[in-house]
Amino acid sequence: MKHHLTLITSPSDKYQLQPAGVGESQYTLYMDTVASPPHLRTNFWQVMDSAQLAPRDLAVDLYRIAATVYAADLGIPRVTGFDRWTRQFALHVPVSNVDRWRSAQPGLEQFLAFLTGDRWEVEFRQCLITRPPRDERAWKKGAKPVARTVSLFSGGLDSFVGAVELTKTGSEICLVGHYGKHPFFKTVILSA
Description:
Elements: E1 2-8, E2 24-31, E3 39-40, H1 44-50, H2 57-75, E4 88-95, H3 98-116, E5 119-126, H4 136-141, E6 149-152, H5 157-167, E7 173-179, E8 186-191
């Protein structure tokens, strides 16, 4: 069974996937400025605003792609795969630069297949709104983390050991992680 996941990131995004074929399922996920269920609720933009961080458009694209992949991986049971393990996904995501992402598409699909053991197709379309409006109040009250190094921090032993090793460099470290269960993600930034 092929699972189509369409990401909608703004109320003006009226993208509609053609009806799925036999043996295919369709899911529409809403994120950022759209509150319709099923909504990938994150506090990503609140964290960015309170830390006075303005990620580049390509970084926002990557965040949205990763959140959609994460939602697909957690939300679609492996028993739906043809061998009751390997699932087949088609992601339909808005991005800031379609041509740039299309050039990276084969590598991205191979990476996702390696990472999850599933089959992936990623289709890109032009993003209408790069990010929701900034929370000016949080921005003014916030402060940028002082860090020369950023490290992913899952809370597991391997990332903990990696963080401890980074502290030996004497450099300021920003640990980035998340917690919660799909579809409720929370982003955490810790400065060490």
